[in-house]
Structures are given as structure tokens and as C-alpha cells.
Amino acid sequence: MNNASPLILALGLLLAPVCIASAATPSSSAVARQDSLAPVLVTAPQWEQMRQQVRRYPLLAGEAQRAERRVRAMMEAGIDVPAPRDKGGGYTHEQHKRNYQAIHAAGALYRLSGDQAYADFVRDMLLRYADLYPTLGPHPQGRGQIPGRLFWQTLNDSVWLVTAVQGYDAVREAIDPASRERIDTQVFRRMAEFLAGAPENFDKIHNHATWAVAATGMTGYVLRDRSYVDRALMGTQRDGEAGFLKQVDQLFSPDGYYEEGPYYQRYALAPFILFANAIERNDPQRGIFRHRDGVLLKAVDALVQSSYGGYFFPINDAILDKGLDTEELVAGIGIAYAQTGDARLLSIAEQQGRVLLSPEGLRVARALAEGEARPFDYRPQLLRDGPDGTEGGLAILRMGGENGQTLVMKNTKQGMGHGHFDKLNWLFYDNGQRVVTDYGAARFLNIEAKAGGIYLPENSSWARQTIAHNTLVVNEQSHFGGDWKKGQALAPTPLLFDITDDTQIASARMDDAYAGVRFTRTQVLLSHPALGEPVVLDLLRVEGDEPARYDLPLHFNGHIMDVGFEARSAVTTRPLLGKANGYQHVWIDASSEPSADARSLTWLLDGRFYTYRFASTAPSRAMIGESGANDPAFNLRREPMLLQRVDGQASTTFYGVLEPHGRYDGTAETVRGANSRIDRIAHHRGADADVLVLHLDGGKTVALGVADDPAADAAHEVSGDGQQWHWQGGWKRFDTSTGEDVK
């Protein structure tokens, strides 16, 4: 093939009808033969429609040009199919990844241009794999119970097959019979048999198995081998106790929340949605996109909702830089839009700036070109967890629009082996920034210098430990004793989730993270005219059978401006917080004496100030620390934290308010609103309820009553500071500035 430019390719797309006809329209004498070879993941008529319209819509045309540049560069460099040798991120790993991407892209380019050279490129590369693959045993750097063949993980082999089989489907009928038979047998059948022949992976309810069943099922459709499809749908025993349908039923809640959290929902979305699309094309009678009230389409919406500023909430084993532009969600948005016509999804596609080279990508590109996009409605919601929606949930509270305030309360179940020990943890976003943070995973994906790109030892010793999160730690031990299998069976109990114009509230209880300890947390996002921005109220009540040490960390992002309490500095000695369970990774820079008085800490982040006022009903010590201790390989990020510690109490209540305020403009050298508008916070306890009171600058007050029992018909009474608060139901807000109760 000559070295045509993207412009020549674009012109070629206009001149290609004769080529396409010869490639995709069989003669009458070859109909039977061609019917068993015609593409099935994208049909020939769909490819023809795309070919006719690809230049009409800029987003799709740009995608074709990018694919052409990438494939041409690889064609000019020559085919390289190396013997597997390296870990993730190494040369052979990355080359096999480039190869499956090129097979996929070249297949689409063949259909869009009619140029046989693209089909020949796919054929020649796959013939090289036909020589190599039968000779392979377990990968020399193999990981896990079942190492891969091309890659060190079976997971990556599955990804190779999901991607490559789509490109092969597009060119299969353009390959000579002998080569096609060799490729069918020595590459695709062998790979499908390898994946389906390992039930300990294939029959799991887990994202690794999702990739494996999708790869096998899509290969089955392309090779017209129903046994592969049936095993993919129903498990190796074909009894429905495993396989794709069981995974859809078990891994997603009725709201579309994925058990392992947003980061892995992003990753698993590709095989779920791509295989579902193949099922819809080939077995439309199954109604796969209607299954469980359209849960796979709900999953796309839920994933977008689980983001802020273009990045996913980094809970569980998450890497912070994964967001809405990830290629898995490009596929999800395109296929979901094709199924629903939901114009809100188009605004996400516009933000991504990418589409699939597929009929779904054509629909998205056309709709965007015709101005049909509508803003995505980021909204407060409770995403229930568990297959029946009864195992906790992710509470998302939002005010101020897409880049305003977002409070995330993590009341979900464990999240399997990728879950962290952080029940009733929280994150807060404001002004486009991560303010109250979650560490996510200790991992540098595919960077060989960092343990080959896998999870680092510090993922276990720090990132997964409870002290690395914003929730209660008892006696310096992590939740469930650090046993994820124990945690998997024990989910928080949601108590409240309610939304009004100026108050959004979520509450949940955790009973079994520690033996003999129960803790309940309520978090509120509320606005008030006397406050510059909405604030977060936090109320955590812990009840134990015996006196204990209770630690409540707060991990935040920013530069400390003011420490509103007396603390002894320890910057020269930097003692460790503790010896194990993540405590060994924290230096302590300052520490106060125990006190029951409210304290404050103010920091600055991207031109906005944040003041956190905090206290507890028992005397507590306040400590300021930083992560990164005991880290000789420099694997951990250095991040600040605040720790409240109560010693020797069986029960106590922590409470606080986080207030965004003011503005610092470094360019103009101006500061305004650097002082908090909240004078103090107070807490009062009744027989079965709590009241938090914010005393605002100027004499106004806001009080929030929260009952132990969220039942709507239960009455409650709390008194303190000469006042009484009465209400019925789980919660009530009282604004005393107007003399009116507000709910």
C-alpha cells in the first residue's frame, strides 16, 4: 500500500463504492459460502452506511483519520509479533497491545475504504500469531492462578481477543480460505478454548471473567460456533450458574452501580457493553438491553454520575487519572446513545471528543453535528449496591451545578478483592477540585520501574487500610481485621437519603466492622444565604461495649493557612503515628493536648479557603500528619491529614463542619473572605437524637436535628443552650434567623 496522506484517504472514501461492492457483495454462486463469512459484529449494510457517511461528520472523519495514521505507521514499520517476555508496560506487552489495536482499526479501515491492503495486513499479522500462539505455554512472568499466554495475566489475553476479533470479523470474508482456516483454528479457537477451559477464571463473578466470557462469546458469533456463545452466556457447564447473564445479575445493582466501584465499573463496562451489543445484533430475541429493567444502560448513566470534573470518584483500588474520556466509556456512551437516543449522553461524547468506528459512533457523530446534545444532568442520588439493591449504597449529594459542590458518602459493600476497608468513608469536591480526598490505589499502571505496573506493596500496607480513609478506626485496627472476605459479607445499613432545595442528607450505620462496636454517620450538604458556599455537616456517633481508642482521620488537599488550636510541633523528630495497619506510613508533625473544645483548621486550594471546625463529646487530641513514612522506594504520595483521637471511652460522638469560603487571587494580589462565616459549632444530644447548631457571623443560626430512628412517624426532642427542638421523622432543619422551621 502506498504512503497516502489522510487527505488522500478522505478522497478515497468518496471513490470507494466499486471497491466496497466487490468486497462486501457476493455473487449468486457464492451466497452460501459468503453467508458464513459475512461480518456479524457490524453487518455489511451497516458498514456500507458508514462508508457513505464517514466524511460527512467531523468526529467520525477524525476518528477514521487517526486510525489510518496509526495503522499506516505500523504497516510501514513491518509486522512485529514477539515472543512474550515482559511484565505489564514492558516491550512485548505493549507490542501485543499495539497489535490488537491495529487489527481492530485496520478491519474498520478496510470496510470504510475497500482497500484490500488493510485486510492483507490483518491477515499477515494474524498468520504470525497462528505461528506463535500454539507454541506458547504460561507466560514467563505469569501472574495469578492462571497466567496468560500472550500477556502475564489471562485478563490481558481476554482483552486482546475482545479487540482483535472485532477487526477480524470485518475482514474475514476478504481473506483467502487457507489463511482463514489457519487463523480460525490456530488463533481464535485456541484462544477461546484457553479462556473457556479455565473455569476457575471463566466462571467467576468478577471483571476478569467478564472479559473472558465476552471474548469467547464474540469469537463464537464470528466463527459461527454456538458452543462458545452458550458457554459465554451460561458458564462452562451451561447451567446459568455462571457466565455473562449471571454476571449481569450479580455484579450490578438495580441502579446500575457496579460492585467493585466506579474505577472498575469503567474497566468492566467495555466487555459488558460490547458483548451485549454483539448479542443484540445476533440474538435480538434475548432483549439483552432490556434485561433487568435495562440495567446495562443504567450502568452507563451511573458511571457518569460517579464522577466530578471529568474524573471518576477514586474509591477502592482506583487510579486517580481515570475519567470520562477513557476508551471504555467512549464505547459505553456510543452504544447507550444508540439504544436510548438520550441526548444528555451526547454532551459526554462531545467532552470525550472521540467515537467508535461503528454504527453507534456514526449515530453519535451525526447527532453532535446536528446540534442535538443536551447537558448531562449531574444530580444528587443514592446508587444502591448489591444485586437486589439491599447492600448499602453510594450516596452522592450535589449543589451548584457540574463543578459546584459534591459530597460522596461511601456506604457500599466491600467491592470484592479490590475493595478498601473504609465503611462510611467520604469525599468532597468543590470549585473543580478534590478537597477531602481518597488515596485510591498505590499503583503506577504499566510503569515497569514501579513493580512492573502492578499494585505496590503499599497498596496493602497503606491504601487499603482504614487509616488511609476518612472514617472511624478502632484500636489502630482496620475494618474487619483487614479481611476482605469477611467484609464482603457485611454491608452498611442506609438510614436516610433525602433531598430538598437547601438541604441534602445521607446517613448509614455500620455494625460489624469491629466486634462490639457500632457506628452511625450522617452527612449533610446545606446552603444558607449567610454562607458563601454550601457547607458539609458531619456527625459520627460510635457506641462500643468496652473503652477503646477511636481515631477519625481527615485527608485533605491544600496548603494549611491557619491551625486553630494549640499544638506542639514535631517537625524535627517526625514521630510515626504507629507501627502497623497503615499507621507506620504516617509522620506526625504537630499534636495537641486532649480537649473537648471545638477546634479549626484552614487550608487554601486553588484560590479558595476551607475551614474545618471539629470537636467530639469526649476529650480528643488533634494531630496533623503526612503520608509517606517507611517508604524506601518512594512509592507513596506525600499528602496531609488531620487526625482526631479519643482514648479510653466506650462511646463518643465526633462532629464537624467543612466550609468553603473566600477567594485568593495571586495574579491581582487580592484576598477576600479569608475568614470563616461560621463563629462556632455546637452539639446537643437527646434521648434518641442529635442536634448540630451552626452559629453564623451576624447572629444567625442553623440547627439540624438527626434522629437515631429514621421512621417518619417517630417524634423527637432535644434541648441545649436554653433551646428546645421538636420534630417528627428522621431529620429536620431549623433556621432561627427567620423564626421559621425549614425542612
Automatic annotation (TrEMBL):
Regions of compositional bias (Low complexity) in chain numbering: 722-731
Major subcellular location class: periplasm
Keywords assigned: Lyase, Periplasm, Signal
Domain Alginate lyase: residue ranges: 79-306
Signal sequence extent: 1-23
Region annotation (Disordered) ranges: 719-743
Compartments (UniProt record): Periplasm
Keyword Lyase belongs to the record: yes
InterPro entries xref list: Alg_lyase, Alginate_lyase_dom, Chondroitin_lyas, Hepar_II_III_C
Protein name: Alginate lyase family protein
Species this protein is from: Luteimonas terrae
